[in-house]
Amino acid sequence: MALITRTAGALHRRPRLRLTLLLTAPLLWLAVLYLGSLSVLFVSAFWTTNSFTSEVVKVWSTDNFHELFTVPVFRQVILRSIGVALAVTALCAVIAFPLAFYTARVAKPKWRPLLVVAILTPLWASYLVKVYAWRLILSEGGLADWMLKPFGLGGPGYGLTAAVLTLTYLWLPYMILPIHTALEQLPANLLDASADLGAKGWRTFRSVVLPMVLPSVAAGSVFTFSLSLGDYITVQIVGGKTQLIGNLVYSNIELNLPMAAALGTVPVVVIVLYLLAMRRTGALSSL
Q1: pTM for the full model?
Q2: What is the CATH number of domain 70-286?
């Protein structure tokens, strides 16, 4: 007991030592498991594969990265993956803003917590259950076809559009929540002052609301962009013949591990560049 008391007193007098001890375990976890695995991924991307035995040859080479940027299929898949991530992010922002504005500024205060819970509820459901539900919705003769049939239209079926729609549904709450928080903290007197100065609704939105909420939109986009860029299960289930980076990584793990590692570095580099771009908007301080 005396030893425990002395130790507690020593830690109380040395806040830096206390902080170091608290952070040691998570920092070791980050350094060894996360950064270590990324380092192994990056190093193995420079290895090659024996074309006859398919065994990994640990010889330094840049052939894998040369193929990534010279083989048309790889270039198309990389650009398509980035395009899908950007499309999902844009759709999430367009859908999330009016929903967040309603939950934060229009709905009665007593209903706002319940609406936030309703937004979070889909996150509690299984990822695969939600994706397979969308597979049923988008299937031939499914709910999408039934709803569009009176207008002489049909559902998109399985393909790139289906993948974008499903990913938008999956990651939409990650965009709504930061925008909701920013709108909730927006001072009401700013909106009143804008109206008193003669600004109409669109001018108030463009000159007052949007500049203050834009960092939160960018913060939400960090989640929607990164999660969409690395996803491959959704594309396998509802994407039809569509191929994204994740699908190529999965298909090359057994056949050509170094090429799979090289493909895996592409999302990492793209996301790092995206984070650096978002940092300039102040989005990272909103996370």
Answers
A1: 0.84
A2: 1.10.3720.10
